[in-house]
């Protein structure tokens, strides 16, 4: 027995320490409340998701608004197309640097002169033209797109297709060859670029009217496998390029048809396919 203390008896109960330990404290309460809070949180999240899903099913704009937006977009696209230049503008600018004016003197027994067209086809400056423009010429003069001029000689010829390849004695300082194409189809849009009747750098447009045509030449020969087209051409277009909508050379203009026998244009022209014409210059078959 300690002095100053009072003995304590336990009779079928608990003492003060055990009684305090048996009561739930703050930690025990949190452990019991956590499952309830988690359940409440899950239900709250589920309610938010349900609300979003059901709200998203409602259109954010009315049908009238959708129509206005569509009309605005379509209108902008149409205006953009209207503001774009015609296809011929880009084609002319693309091929113009490769176009050549060809003047021949002393042709044939009559010693006539002739004016025709040609097109630069490679980085060496070789020029494709129609053979009848330079055949038996005493001299050939070239005028390039940059204004420079040069005498020229005939490198090779293909009499079966009325094609000649020319070499300039003095090529232009910057050589910009045309791009060769192929795959002409009846109904395709086409362009002819040349110097009809001396009107330098003239572009005309039409469609390809037929394929594998035959055309008689003044010397009595007949050229087969030609492209028929209705882009207007006249004397001076001979030897110039026939182009597709990509600005690629698909043929070399060789003649025009006229039942009266003169050289007036009646809307039917003929061109040698570039596959056949290019072979005269050693180009691979198209």
Could you describe the 3D structure shown?
The model is unreliable at 1-22 (pLDDT under 50). The longest helix is centred in the N-terminal third of the chain and has 31 residues, at 26-56. By secondary structure, this protein is of the alpha+beta class. Strand 1 (99-107) and strand 2 (112-120) form a beta hairpin. The protein has a domain at 89-279: Thrombin, subunit H, CATH 2.40.10.120. It has helices at 16-21, 26-56, 63-83, 87-95, 131-134, 274-279; strands at residues 99-107, 112-120, 127-130, 139-143, 149-158, 163-168, 189-194, 202-216, 222-229, 241-243, 249-256, 269-273. It has a six-stranded antiparallel beta barrel with strand order 1-2-3-6-5-4. Strands 7-8-9-12-11-10 form a six-stranded antiparallel beta barrel.
Give a quick set of tags describing it.
Thrombin, subunit H, 6 helices, single chain, disordered N terminus, 286 residues
* Strand composition percent: 25-35%
CATH topology heading of the domain at 89-279? Thrombin, subunit H
Overall SS class: alpha+beta
Number of helices: 6
- Binned, the helix content reads 25-40%
Outline: elongated
What would you report as the Rg, rounded to the nearest angstrom?
A: 44 Å
The residue ranges in which pLDDT falls below 50 over 5 or more consecutive positions are: 1-22
From the coordinates shown, what is the CATH architecture of the domain at 89-279? Beta Barrel
Work out the number of β strands.
Answer: 12
Intertermini distance = 124 Å
SSE run: HHHHEEEHEEEEEEEEEH
- Strand order across the largest sheet: 1-2-3-6-5-4
What's the CATH first level of the domain at 89-279? Mainly Beta
Mean pLDDT: 79
Q: Largest sheet, if any?
A: 6 strands, antiparallel, barrel
């Amino acid at each position: 027995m300690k002095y100053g203390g009072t003995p304590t008896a336990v009779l079928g109960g608990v003492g003060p320490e055990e009684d305090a330990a048996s009561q739930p404290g703050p930690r025990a309460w949190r452990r019991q409340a956590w499952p309830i809070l988690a359940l409440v949180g899950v239900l709250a999240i589920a309610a938010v998701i349900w609300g979003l899903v059901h709200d998203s099913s409602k259109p954010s704009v009315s049908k009238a608004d959708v129509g206005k937006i569509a009309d605005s977009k379509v209108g902008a696209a149409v205006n953009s197309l209207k503001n774009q230049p015609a296809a011929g503008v880009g084609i002319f600018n693309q091929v113009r640097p490769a176009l050549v004016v060809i003047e021949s003197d002393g042709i044939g027994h009559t010693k006539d002169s002739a004016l025709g067209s040609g097109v630069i086809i490679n980085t060496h400056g070789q020029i494709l033209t129609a053979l009848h423009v330079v055949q038996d010429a005493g001299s050939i003069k070239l005028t390039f797109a940059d204004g420079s001029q040069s005498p020229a000689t005939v490198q090779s010829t293909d009499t079966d297709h009325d094609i000649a390849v020319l070499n300039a004695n003095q090529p232009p300082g910057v050589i910009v060859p045309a791009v060769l194409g192929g795959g002409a189809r009846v109904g395709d849009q086409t362009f002819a670029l040349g110097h009809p009747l001396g009107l330098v750098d003239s572009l005309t447009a039409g469609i390809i009217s037929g394929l594998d045509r035959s055309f008689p030449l003044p010397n009595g020969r007949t050229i087969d496998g030609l492209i028929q087209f209705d882009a207007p051409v006249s004397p001076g277009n001979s030897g110039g390029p026939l182009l597709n909508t990509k600005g690629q050379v698909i043929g070399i203009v060789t003649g025009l048809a006229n039942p009266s026998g003169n050289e007036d244009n009646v809307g039917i022209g003929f061109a040698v396919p570039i596959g056949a014409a290019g072979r005269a210059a050693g180009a691979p078959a198209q």
